[in-house]
Amino acid sequence: MHDNVVFNNKVLPYFLLAPQLVITLVFFIWPAGQALYQSFLIEDAFGFSREFVWLDNFIYLFSDDEYWNSIRVTFVFSGLVAFSGMAVALLLAAMADRVIKGATTYKTLLIWPYAVAPVVAAVIWWLMFNPSIGILAFLSWTLGHQWNHYVNANEAMAVVVIASAWKQISYNFIFFLAGMQAIPRSLIEAAAIDGSGPFKRFWQIVFPLLSPIAFFLLVVNVVYAFFETFGVIHATTLGGPGNATRTLVYKVYEDGFVGLDMGSSAAQSVILMILVITLTIIQFKFIERKVQY
Amino acid sequence: MIENRPWLTAVRHLVLILGIIVIGLPIWIALVASTNTSASFVSGVMPMWFGEEGLNNFRRVLTNEGRVLGVGVSASWMMWNSFIMAMVIAIGKITISILSAFAIVYFRFPFRRTCFWMIFITLMLPVEVRILPTYEVVASLGMLNSYAGLTIPLIASATATFLFRQFFLSIPDSLAEAARIDGAGPMKFFKDILLPLSVNNIAALFVILFIYGWNQYLWPLLITTDENYYTIVMVIKRLMTAGEGNVPWNIIMTTTVLAMLPPVVVVLVMQKFFVRGLVEQEK
Amino acid sequence: MATVSLRNIKKTYSNGFKAIHNLNLEIEDGEMIVLVGPSGCGKSTSLRMVAGLEATSEGDLYIGDKRVNDLEPSERDIAMVFQNYALYPHMSVARNMGYGLKNQGLPRDEIRRKVEKAARVLEIEHLLDNKPKQLSGGQRQRVAMGRAIVRNPKVFLFDEPLSNLDAKLRVQMRIEIKRLQQEFATTAIYVTHDQVEAMTLADRLVVMNGGKVEQVGPPLDLYEKPETQFVAGFLGSPGMNFMPARIQGQALLVQGDHRIDLPDMAELAQWDGRDITFGVRPEHLEACSEAEADFHLKVDIIEPLGADTLLYGHLPGSDSLMIAEQPGKRRYTRGDVVPLRVDRERLHLFDAETEQRLNE
Ligand SMILES: Nc1ncnc2c1ncn2[C@@H]1O[C@H](COP(=O)(O)OP(=O)(O)OP(=O)(O)O)[C@@H](O)[C@H]1O
Ligand SMILES: [Mg+2]
User: Mean pLDDT in runs of 10 for chain B (283 residues)?
Assistant: First the structure.
């Protein structure tokens, strides 16, 4: 019944909200409107002429193979990042859930990558896979494979996926572990009394109870892979080789800032916004089931 | 412990230790590389053990001795820029979010819902998806190459507002009522009661937002052309492309270590707050 | 010290819900008024309007001779004790108690003095430096009381202050509250839905139902002469037995065929043949000889409480429940048929339609 607690001031709340609202308006809503507007225009690179072209930018995009390639790359990339990051984290959390000795130490040693910038992670992994000097490339060579992410599309994808997922492991780990520790002991004890072994217990009891968290993490990881990994690509593959790692966000940047194709970049932004909004709504349906609005 | 199976416990520890090694490998590589000479990266396999050049590398990078970074400013200066950016973003976000949440929860006023939704929208629009128009707005406001431009556009935060809102909603109404009877007006209630009760949430958010601010990459890349505003995270990429063919890996990794250090320290020192703060997001 | 007057108070919530229909109440100086009623009847709403936490939709509210409708809670010179205590979790007991005084701008040593004095009265001096989290429920309750009395207000307001305590502590604190209120002789409004609390604490009791006042008066008056069937049923535990009846001459026909001769009543004639509700409290049904019996109770369940025994049963040929309270020394077994006689001085007749009391 929060309806009761009300301070009666009429003006004060607007003052309290003003900074947030002003920033939101100026730096979020205005640019978003701008993007929408520009997505209907074609402009020459110098801004001398502009023409209102309705959906031409969008039609052009969707008839462009490169754009479809970007979409495919983004989905493959995000899927791999989300899946591998979550799988490793789940395994580690399942192991850490029950250890008694050294639990805190393990936790501490597993969570610090959260603090590392994606671009920093990418640069280090890039070095480790460096075809001529990298330790992992060397390992692959001893196993009889010549690693070269400069020419091999799959290998380039592998490096950016590993670097991006690596950074997310700690985040996923924290959530999985918290989720497991919130499961009432009695539930697991009851299953143990029914005679199911530890593996069976995990799949039949712990895992289903974790599924809401897993779903939440899936969305978070996909959003992360979509939008926060620009630095990973930009510092390493630059979208290459060929177009093998040119994700949607990277392409927006390239077309806008390098190609100076405003209309197309704006149209891509609009598509991305629709995508994020969809993802966020899904996420919110989950997080804020309790929201009264 | 439900049952005692020694082999299971052993497997657990084994997997965890393996995990830590895999997860820790990159930092090992970075640390090792930062102590070696650039010559050790020219051919053969990269060094896997510490060299003698550590102090030298860090000194050169921190002071930008002989323009080792290929730009006009030193790593220490760029770390300072990163620090300012991280602090302003963290403190700014916390401040405006806690005030908004306070307004939304404790007042009733026309357009409350509209405001709520407007803030909600910011959650949906990460900088990355509206790069160009945001850049144009910032440019037209004359905020390129300034601390204001680096920070203010990133300060609005729906996530933090939601966290505070959730927290405020969990505080019993009667506390505010008791304060009203005790003669506390809204700002006094905020200062004397809400703020002290929020310290844990603030600390948790601070960690998360500090990291967020420190690790910004795309935004500083776009709006800074003046080297004086470069941040440590964004300069790494420049180093990669600087010396074509002969990449100065020892210098890059030294810079990398410096770029990781502050946020990692913050996470480790404030681990407890940070973990709780993160997990709260999902609630 | 002050009187409190509620004149034609109405409350409609923003969602259109009418919580209080028309409340009129004159509270005397130093009087302890208890509001009781079932959940949702508007007790808290009324109290909160007096406190100023809720705006009145209509009507006038006076504390002393000042109209306070438009004053902030802090300007009304009241103090309130909440059900969940509402102690500030991050402040020590002393700071909790002194916060209101501090906001009034009193000097620190004066605050300290007043807080210590109040703490002494409540025997919580040794807790002054503790945080609320470190206290037991009873101690928190005392601190909440302390916060109210330090300010020496004109009116104490209590909203179910004891309902979070266990039964034993509740009795103890009830007595404590009574003692304090008498000692300070401060006007008090106390909300509860526990009728024992209501009966024991009140100088006057206000029974509310569905946003309306059913009856106001000293507890025993209400107990003995409930004006409405609702009040009759609400006060007393176990509750009053009600049965449909009809007046026929000088007698009452209960449930068709149980005949009860009524004492001489002038009004009887005018109700002849009318449908009414007959009520009698369990303790006013006495076991008697066959010859005197008004009812025969077939016992289904027996609850021996020591001092008394409660008999739950039904009248043969009917399935409506009836409860009788008997002295504890006699033993009963299930299936007994007990002849009972209604205490003629203490029976209640209500109009079947309006549920208003009929007999004197
Ligand atoms: N803010 C509000 N908005 C709408 N209706 C409300 C609000 N607060 C209370 N009500 C309604 O007003 C009626 C009276 O509420 P009130 O809290 O006064 O009841 P109460 O007698 O104190 O009950 P309880 O014994 O459960 O505390 C209830 O039906 C309640 O649902
Ligand atoms: Mg109530």
Answer: 70 90 91 86 82 86 83 90 95 94 91 83 71 86 92 86 89 91 92 93 90 92 91 87 71 92 91 78 57
Q: What is the CATH number of the domain that holds C258?
A: 2.40.50.140
- Please tell me the total count of domains within chain A: 1
* Cβ of C41 below 6 Å from ligand 1: yes
- Would you state the torsion angle of the CA atoms of residues C305, C309, C314, C316, taken in this order, to the nearest 10 degrees? 150
Domain assignment present for C321: yes
- Region C236-257 average pLDDT: 85
Q: How many CB atoms lie within 10 A of CB C134?
A: 12
| B64 in a structural domain | no
Instruction: With a cut of 80, say whether residue C14 has pLDDT above it.
Output: yes
> Three-state SS across C242-266?
EEEEEEECCEEEECCCEEEECCCCH
Q: How far apart are the first and last CA of chain C?
A: 36
* Average pLDDT rounded to a whole number, residues C9-31: 92
> Do both C9 and C156 map to the same domain?
yes
Structure pTM? Answer: 0.86
C251-254 and C241-248 as β-strands: parallel, antiparallel, unpaired? antiparallel
User: Are residues C9 and C21 in contact, defined by beta-carbon separation less than 8 angstroms?
Assistant: no
Mark whether C33 and C175 lie in a shared domain.
Answer: yes
- Whether the CB of A181 is below 8 Å from some CB of chain B: the reply is no
Distance from Cα C20 to the centre of ligand 1, integer Å: 10
Residue to probe by mutation, ligand 1, list C14, C17, C35, C47, most atoms within 8 Å of CB: C17
Ligand 1 site-directed mutation target among C12, C14, C15, C43, most atoms within 8 Å of CB: C43
Interface contact flag, B181 C80, Cβ < 8 Å: yes
The residue range of the domain holding A180 is 65-292
**What is the span of the domain harbouring residue C271?**
241-351
Q: Is residue B17 part of a domain?
A: no
C-alpha C38 – ligand 2 centre gap (Å): 9
Q: Which chains touch B (3 or more CB pairs under 8 A)?
A: A, C
Q: Name the DSSP letter for residue C357.
A: B
pLDDT above 50 (res C252): yes
Number of domains in chain B: 1
